[in-house]
Every structure is written in structure tokens, then in C-alpha cells.
Amino acid sequence: VCWSERGGWHRPRVSPYGPIQLDPAAAVLHYAQEIFEGLKAYRHADGSIWTFRPYENAARMQRSAHRLALPELPSEHFIASLKQLIAVDGDWVPTAPETSLYLRPFMFAKEAFLGVRPAKKVAYYLIASPAGAYFSGGVQPVNIWLSSEYARASKGGTGAAKTGGNYASSLLPQAEAYEHGCQQVLFLDEGTYLEELGGMNIVLVRKDGTLITPESESILEGITRDSVLRLAADRGHLIEQRKVTLDEWRDGAASGDIVGAFACGTAAVIVPIGRLLGEDFEIVHNGPQAEELALSLREELTGIQYGRVEDRHGWLVRLDA
Ligand code: PMP
């Protein structure tokens, strides 16, 4: 779909996958005026195709659009684009357990204009790619690296928006994490408060079952995190969404009050965190409590997504009907 200041949203169409043409002066190539979303299509046992809480992705994309001075795509257009793609590509939604069709909606400034101001011509696209099981040999805890030198986003910046620039700034610390044998990087806010990982939110588990997750203006509000915390609240867990310092985590782990942590996001769903490593710094958890909780919440959430567990919150939206 295209958008122009004068014509609004127009020309929706489905076309075969292939390269797109851009003017070398297209604003997105210079000023990164760009946003995206990520969600999945799941095939249920009866063959029907569903997606999970897409109105939340549509709303988050609108918030991202606002921050990046892009036009808001109405939710009904967003949902229609998912259904249109499934109408032609439904065969690609796999049938094996834990596999899905990853859906990537994105919007960028395509106006050829080198001045720094919001573009007057924008394009919205949706592409899709089959996604295999994230963990082939069962869910394994991940180790995470504490980035002390770099931040992903700062207060008043674009941290809460899903925009490429945030990911560009996380690439170098992510590479640093790999060098230290860690799969993900943890970002802090001003060196004190926990924020999030490169592509996932973080939740700490207390011994009494309370779940603590960072409140911050500069993190992405994950739809998986919100869903997991609601499932946990349904089971009677207390939920605290508030500022959390690294010291609180370290001291809590040392005293045994914090028994572990997990990360969550659309791609991996929920992953237990094994160790947190940094320069001269380490947090290690002992005992199975947090890992067992993470895996059981994961089972329930994927159960809902794949149609094995009752969708009591009404989170699923059918895409092939
Ligand atoms: N934080 C970041 C930086 C992310 O890229 C993602 C993945 N979209 C998340 C958190 C988790 O968000 P969601 O659960 O909506 O996938």
C-alpha cells in the first residue's frame, strides 16, 4: 500500500516476492524513517490458520508511526493485509509443531528528498517467511551479556518504537555478546535500571512466585510479555511492573530471593536465562524453580497459539476465513 500527503492510503495490491525499486535519494536510506512489526501465523490441527493478538501489533505500529513521523495505518488495513497474504500464501503455513509463518509488516519513507523533514510519500509492505522451531533440541537456557559501554536507546528517544535504528545500535553490543559466548545482550538504562534484551523483554522470578519486569519509556512493550504475565496472573502470581536495578537482581540472586529470570518475544516465545555475564560481573541462579515456571508458561502460551489449549482471553484471530 502507498501513502501520499495528498492521496492518503491507496493502491493495495499483492504481488510476487521480489526486489523493490527505490530512488537513491529515498529518505529511508538516509534518515532511517522506518518502522516494522513481527508476528506469526499458526496452523491448527484442523488446517485453519490463525494469528495471535494482531490488533496489539497494529496499535504498536501506530505508536511507532507517530514517533517516527510516519502516517498511521488503520488497524483494519493492517489486519486485511495479513488476510490477503494468507489468501495467496496459506500453503506456506507449516503443519509441524512449533513451526509457523513469520509475518513482517513494515513501513518506510520512499520520497526522494534529501532535506530533513517527514517524508510525504510512504510505502507499507508485508512479507512472510516460514519459521522453523526456534530450538531444535528442546528449549535451552540462554546466557546473556551485560553491555556496559552501549545503550540501545535513551530517554526521549525512539526506544519504545519498533524502528530499525534501535536494532542498528544493538548490533555491535550483540556481536560483543557472541564473542563472550552469550546469545543475547542486556541493555541498561543509564547504567542502573534493567531495560530489555536485543530482541526480547526480560522478567525476573522471585522465590515467592512474584514476577518483576522493567517499566521504562525506552523499551519495546512486548506482546509476548504482556500475554505471559496475564497467564501467570491467572495462576495467582503477583506481577510487579516497575523500575528494577541491576543491583536488586544481583543482591536478590545472592540472597536467594530472586531464583531466576526468563526472556520473552514472538520469535523464541519464552526462554529461561542461564547466566548473566559482564566485565568482572556474573549472576548465576541455582535451582529449577524459574526454569520450570518459564517452560510451563511457554507450554500454555504455545498451546493457545497452536490451538491445543482453550483461548480464554480471545487472543486468536482467524486469517483464512
Ligand atoms: N524487545 C525488543 C527490542 C524486540 O525486538 C522484541 C521483539 N519484537 C521484543 C522486545 C518482544 O516483543 P514481542 O513480544 O511483541 O515480540
UniProtKB/TrEMBL annotation:
<dbReference type="InterPro" id="IPR036038">
    <property type="entry name" value="Aminotransferase-like"/>
</dbReference>
<dbReference type="InterPro" id="IPR005786">
    <property type="entry name" value="B_amino_transII"/>
</dbReference>
<comment type="similarity">
    <text>Belongs to the class-IV pyridoxal-phosphate-dependent aminotransferase family.</text>
</comment>
<keyword id="KW-0100">Branched-chain amino acid biosynthesis</keyword>
<comment type="pathway">
    <text>Amino-acid biosynthesis; L-leucine biosynthesis; L-leucine from 3-methyl-2-oxobutanoate: step 4/4.</text>
</comment>
<dbReference type="InterPro" id="IPR043132">
    <property type="entry name" value="BCAT-like_C"/>
</dbReference>
<dbReference type="InterPro" id="IPR001544">
    <property type="entry name" value="Aminotrans_IV"/>
</dbReference>
<dbReference type="Pfam" id="PF01063">
    <property type="entry name" value="Aminotran_4"/>
</dbReference>
<keyword id="KW-0028">Amino-acid biosynthesis</keyword>
<keyword id="KW-0032">Aminotransferase</keyword>
<dbReference type="InterPro" id="IPR043131">
    <property type="entry name" value="BCAT-like_N"/>
</dbReference>
<dbReference type="InterPro" id="IPR033939">
    <property type="entry name" value="BCAT_family"/>
</dbReference>
<dbReference type="GO" id="GO:0004084">
    <property type="term" value="F:branched-chain-amino-acid transaminase activity"/>
</dbReference>
<keyword id="KW-0808">Transferase</keyword>
<comment type="pathway">
    <text>Amino-acid biosynthesis; L-isoleucine biosynthesis; L-isoleucine from 2-oxobutanoate: step 4/4.</text>
</comment>
<keyword id="KW-0663">Pyridoxal phosphate</keyword>
<protein>
    <recommendedName>
        <fullName>branched-chain-amino-acid transaminase</fullName>
        <ecNumber>2.6.1.42</ecNumber>
    </recommendedName>
</protein>
